[in-house]
Design goal:
The chain is α+β, with helices and mostly antiparallel strands. It is 42% helix and 13% strand. The strands form 4 sheets. Strands 4-3-13-7-8 form a 5-stranded mixed sheet. The chain has a 4-stranded antiparallel sheet with strand order 5-6-10-11. The protein has a two-stranded antiparallel ribbon with strand order 1-2. The longest helix is centred in the N-terminal third of the chain and has 28 residues.
Length: 505
Amino acid sequence: MTEYDFPAWLRVSHLLNFFLIGLLIRSGWQIIATHPRFYWRNDCGPGTDWIRFTRRVVPREEGAYMARDDESSLPSWLALPGGKNIGLGRHWHGLVTVLWVANGFFYVGLLFLTGQWGRIVPTSWDVIPSAWESLTVYAGFGIPGIEHFTPYDSLQQLMYFTVVFIAAPLMLVTGPAMSPALIGRHPWYAKMLGGRQAARSLHFLGMAFLTFFTVMHIALVFVVHPDHNLPQMMFGVDDPARFAQALTVCLIGIALVVAAWLAISYLSLVDVRKTQRLLFALLEPIRAVTVNRMVSRTRRASTYTDKDISPYHWSNGRHPTSEESPEWTALAEGGFEDFAMEIGGLTSHPVRVTLDELKALPQQEQIAMHTCMQGWTGIAKWKGPKVMDVMALAGQRDPAARFLMVTSFGLAQKMHDGRPLEPYYSCIPLADCLEDESIFAWSMNDRPLPLTFGAPLRLRVESIHGYKMVKYIHALEWIKDYREVGDGMGGTREDSGYQAINARI
Ligand code: HEM
């Protein structure tokens, strides 16, 4: 029979798990703070949230309240990295997920390879009445006798089983359902979980359970037979004589982990650009072998129909004011009849095209889910010509041009270095432009694009997050490399919000 001891690999991966799960929870809170509401339905309408962490009330009038108005700032000791830094929070969440999953597979793999699985997998139904008995003992502020801990008592074993074989896989399964690339390509995946927002809610519930578990677990370590379990956890031996030593090592370990959590937050903020570049470089190879291979096919699979269209659709970024863009305001006053867009850059015949010319091209209609990196979604019907058909109006693309720079009449909400606000722009990788569902939409839900949603023209690329789908389009330009424009990060949200140019997750 396997002896359930505490081998070094188990202790090391347990410590690593503690460190990583703290980073996951804290970066998760950073993401939640930008849209602190959870839903079961994909349209995220006002009042349909089942839980919220804000007192703000969302008016029913579409466009009266922006998703950005809902964002809160969190302190750096709580969230990773803290402040209003969803960009860095998302990078951290992605990177730590990879490490956490690798550590999880290492742990579970060794659990089975070494025959140690029996320590947390119950093999008899007796575990249930026995766990209930332990629960009643705890409820009466008692502690089950040491003879129950071989090495764990039934309640403890059930909890550990739940954490490792239910809660952790739940996080693993629901996380990817939040990627627009994955659900654009494989809509069944989100449907299987009850929809994208249901997956997000389940991910949240998993986080709440793991947070509760972590706090209780740490508290109980110091309360339930600490003279036995601390020497086991720290040194792998059941030797109460080494309790003081084990307690010291354990407290130092916890203090070091907490210090590392805080240091990561503060160091991330010392030079946000450096942090952004570093995390991007580490994450990009992972995206390259996962989401980069997924091309949206929402329309072909007829994932959504007219009845799925959201009665309320969130949006971000108010339309330009007359001070920000007198040109756009004048065009809007004239019903955009005089609208004409420059298409140029690395192409053989730069041109100016009008809205009528765009409408004369073959039109594509698609009902698609808009996914914001803040967490909300909305389903709408979009219509317009394909990106590559529009670009063909300007002749041959120079093969050196790998990105399409889309510039807006609207301004950025803030600049990285505090300089005066510049026009919002985004660089779209050629592969995204070539997708079947990449269009310039002039119509939303069978009406001309409303002002809030980007009139007269906006970009739709259904495999990526909303921050790259420029609204109020002013000009299009083929460019060689996104590093040569703006602050060199790929767009306004990348330059000043520290997001990634790759918005597929
Ligand atoms: C202990 C494990 C984990 C915890 C505590 C955790 C927690 C969270 C929380 C609280 C959020 C914010 C949800 C929101 O407001 O949208 C989040 C987002 C997310 N999580 Fe996790 N998570 C964990 C593991 C994972 C895993 C294993 C994956 C992927 C396999 C994953 C992928 C994601 C994704 C893609 C998002 C959306 C983030 C974004 O927009 O960038 N998470 N997570």
